[in-house]
Amino acid sequence: MGLHLKREKERVFLLSFIYRLSKLLVILKPKTRFNLYLTLEWIFDRLAHEESFNYFSYEKHPLRYHTINFIKKQVESTDKVLDLGSGYGDMSNKLADFSEKVVGVDCIKGDVEIAKSKHNQPNLEFIYGDAFDYLESCNEKFDVIILSHILEHIDEPLDFLKKCVPHAKKIFIELPDYDKTYLNHYRTQLKNKIQYTDADHVWEFDRVELFELIKDTGLKIIESEFRFGVIKVWCETYDK
């Protein structure tokens, strides 16, 4: 929901102070000054984002509840769901509220132990190990695979996604949207040192690039959304 504001805005002292302080930076070269502002914006954006998880509960965090609502539209109550990279299990736990069974798999043992201690619904299971070792060893067929903030961490995302295709009818993908702001494209042009959402990311996908990746995988996009700085995409196999 947007806002309708008064033309005369309330004065914010900190904003006024920093704006006036910035005038002193005229001594710097334009490119240096531009890069400095981009870096500062990245830092404070990151700090605000991290602090949001301390302020909002899981259920009330805008990013999280919008994601859950987007996922619910495509998941049936009879579906078996595989959540790859399930972490502390918060999303897996929410998925278990509206699906038949959820299995969360993660390669970090400590995260899996935390997930097991936090969540104990009868239709929810957490597995420690490699995702594809699990898929190859189990005989269970899943209806849905969840890839929430996974592909951007994978060196070969195309190969990873192709391995997922035979194991489910639908795949949900969510990751940061490089097109969320023009500032990211400024950073690219200036070769700014901070061009990533998270230090562990090896990919920052724009919308066109992600859609091309999905197409190359042999999946069909059935629904997508670009909100809150992330890309959400539902895909299904053509022979569904």
The overall pLDDT, averaged over residues, is 93
Question: Which structural class do the helices and strands define?
Answer: alpha/beta
What is the N-to-C order of secondary-structure elements (H for helix, E for strand)?
HHHEHEHEHEHEHHEE
Rg over CA atoms: 21 Å
What is the strand content? Answer: 15-25%
Give the class-level CATH name.
Answer: Alpha Beta
Main pleated-sheet profile: 7 strands, mixed
Uncertain regions spanning at least 5 consecutive residues: none
Percent helix among the residues? Answer: 40-55%
CATH architectural label: 3-Layer(aba) Sandwich
What is the spatial order of strands in the main beta sheet?
3-2-1-4-5-7-6
What is the total tally of β strands? 7
The geometry reads as elongated
- At the fold tier of CATH, the topology name is Rossmann fold
CATH homologous superfamily name? Vaccinia Virus protein VP39
User: How many domains would you count in the coordinates?
Assistant: 1
Distance between termini?
Answer: 36 Å
Total helices: the number is 9
Description:
With 240 residues, the chain is α/β, with parallel strands linked by helices. A seven-stranded mixed sheet has the order 3-2-1-4-5-7-6, with helices on both faces. It has a single domain, classed as 3-Layer(aba) Sandwich (Rossmann fold), CATH 3.40.50. 41% of the residues lie in helices and 19% in strands. The radius of gyration is 21 Å and the shape is elongated.
Q: How does the SSE layout of this entry go?
A:
Elements: H1 13-22, H2 30-55, H3 62-72, E1 80-84, H4 90-95, E2 101-106, H5 109-118, E3 124-128, H6 131-137, E4 144-148, H7 157-164, E5 170-176, H8 182-190, H9 207-217, E6 219-227, E7 230-237
Parallel strand pairs: 1-2, 1-4, 2-3, 4-5
Antiparallel strand pairs: 5-7, 6-7
